[in-house]
Write a structure and sequence with these properties.
The protein is an alpha/beta fold. It contains nine helices and nine strands. The strands form two sheets. A six-stranded mixed beta sheet has the order 2-3-1-4-5-6, sandwiched between helices. A three-stranded mixed beta sheet has the order 7-8-9. The protein starts with a strand and ends in an 11-residue tail after the last helix.
């Protein structure tokens, strides 16, 4: 495989900059959950693109935040660890950033890592803010980065060509490798249990209001395929206050039924078969302050050497 390249590209940006949508677009599969609410991504998610010239492992990371404790502390550490371990970085900046300083922070942070990088401007189809494209492009170029712009991820001839350009550019940033890092048939190394729990969390973000989705967690209790006509999944939604249980369940169970119904459809898509999904809601007071529970939920950054 002379000239073959493979490596990790970290997607770095502010909350709700479009990192997860971008990765799903590039991999051409739904790997990361996507909602209209910011800070949906809680832990790194890997999406894999493989072709004859090489393999790119995209790493979707939580949005940049400043915190050192609890769940937000984990999110901040996770984003830092993704930058440290990636072979190359993409600075994802959106035309609808609340402040110009937010975009500048991302560009400064990525360029300061001294790794190959580019800048990608998202949501450029927002007509009232399209004047910001040139401003953001200039900020990227001033830091020595190459700039790309993406209007949306809807299928179109222009986006097909842009996707090809982005994949080619991404591959050029990566080191040569004797072989792929993952099986070339995979689009993600995430297991079905993890994908299922993330889908349920996505639906919680969609159907629950205000700040409630940010204070809940989701975990798979059982995933039973043995001796069953169809797989049985038992998934628990953890809330941090007893008063939140009723809000998740809804009147006569209506909200939980909606979350369950929409989750089941998505999980069946990724599994390629019918499933039985059993959702339960439990309260664990301030679970995000419980180190043991945080570890069980996977919200602990594993210590690792720099790449």
């Amino acid at each position: 495989m002379s000239g073959y390249r493979a490596g990790f590209i970290g997607l770095i940006g502010q909350p709700n900059a479009g990192k997860s949508t971008l990765m799903n677009f590039l991999v051409n599969q739904k790997v990361s959950i996507v909602t209209a609410k910011p800070q949906t991504t809680r832990r790194r998610v890997l999406g894999i693109w493989s072709a004859n010239p090489g393999q790119i492992v995209f790493v979707d990371s939580p949005g940049i935040i400043q915190a050192d404790r609890g769940l937000n502390g984990f999110l901040a550490q996770e984003a830092e660890d993704v930058m440290r371990q990636s072979d190359a970085l993409w600075a994802i900046v959106s035309v609808d950033e609340q402040k110009a300083e937010d975009a500048q922070q991302v560009i400064d942070l990525v360029s300061s890592q001294k790794k190959p990088w580019i800048g990608l401007i998202t949501k450029t189809d927002l007509k009232e803010k399209e004047h910001r494209v040139l401003i953001l492009s200039d900020l990227i170029k001033k830091k020595g980065g190459k700039s790309f712009a993406l209007s949306s991820v809807k299928k179109s001839e222009d986006n097909t060509l842009l996707r090809e350009d982005l994949l080619s550019e991404g591959l050029s940033l990566l080191p040569e490798s004797p072989a792929p890092l993952y099986d070339i048939e995979l689009f993600t190394p995430e297991n079905t249990r993890t994908l299922a729990s993330e889908i349920v969390r996505e639906k919680c973000f969609e159907f629950l209001h205000h700040e409630l989705p940010y204070s809940l967690a989701v975990r798979v209790l059982t995933f039973d395929e043995v001796g069953r006509s169809i797989p049985h999944l038992a998934i628990e939604i953890l809330v941090s206050k007893e008063s939140h249980k009723g809000m998740v369940i809804g009147k006569e169970g209506a909200v939980l039924k909606k979350i369950g119904s929409e989750s089941r459809k998505e999980i069946e898509k990724i599994m390629g078969e019918k499933i039985f999904l059993d959702l339960k809601v439990s309260c664990r007071e301030d679970w995000f302050s419980n180190q043991r529970l945080m570890k069980e939920l996977g919200y602990v950054v594993a210590k690792s050497k720099d790449r």
